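Input record (one chain):
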Amino acid sequence: MTKQVLFQPFPKQEEFINAALAGNHTFIVYGGAIRGGKTFSLLALFIILARIFPGSRWVIVRKDMPTIRQNLYPAWNKIKPTKFLKNPGSDPHGTNHTSTFSNGSQIIFFPESDERDKEKNRWKGLEANGFGFEEINECQQQSLFKAFERAGSYVVPNLKVQPKPLIVATCNPTQGWVKELVYTPFKEGRLKSSWMYIQSRIYDNLPLLEQQPDYLPSLKENLNRYEY
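The corresponding structure, as predicted from the sequence alone:
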C-alpha cells in the first residue's frame, strides 16, 4: 500500500502543533508574516485532535462564509484525510459546514459574520471542545471572549479523559486589538502564563521558498518598505 503524506510540518509548524498538544496553554497565537504556513498548521492540528479524542467537536472560525469558501476550503481540500472522513467524497460545503470523521469527531467551519450578528447570538449554545481562529486579526475581540466561554462546554460521550479547553489562532501583522492584547505583552515579557505567542516568518516556510524561488524577490521589488 502506498503511503500518502498530506502534511509534513517544518520546524516552526511543529512547534505550534506540539505546544497545542502539550496542554499547558489555553490560548496560542501563531502570528507573523504571510505565507508562513500558518493555515495548514491550524488545520493539521485539529485533524490530530479529532483523531486523539474520538467523538470530540472542534470549531474553526473565519470572518465570513465567502472567506471560508475562498481561502479556507481550498487548503482543507489539500490536507483533509479522506480515509479518516466518515464520507470521503463529501466536503463541508453543505448547510452545516461540518466535516465528520469515522470516529465521530467533527470539525465545524464557523463564520463569525459580525455584521449580521453583532450580539453574537449564534455563539449561544455552541458546544465545542476548542476553537481555532484563522486570521483572528480580521475578527472581533468579543468573538475571542465568546470562544473562551464555549471552549470545553462539550462533554464527549463515553470518553474518560476529556480534551482540555483550547483556543488557537493565526494572524497576520496588524495594528489592531490582537497586537494590543497579545503581541505587545509578548514583546514586553508580560503575556499571561497560560497564553503563548509563536512568531511566524516567511523564511520558516522552506517548502514554499524552494518551490517558488522568485516569490521573495518579487515582494522586495514591488512592495514599499513598510509593506515589505
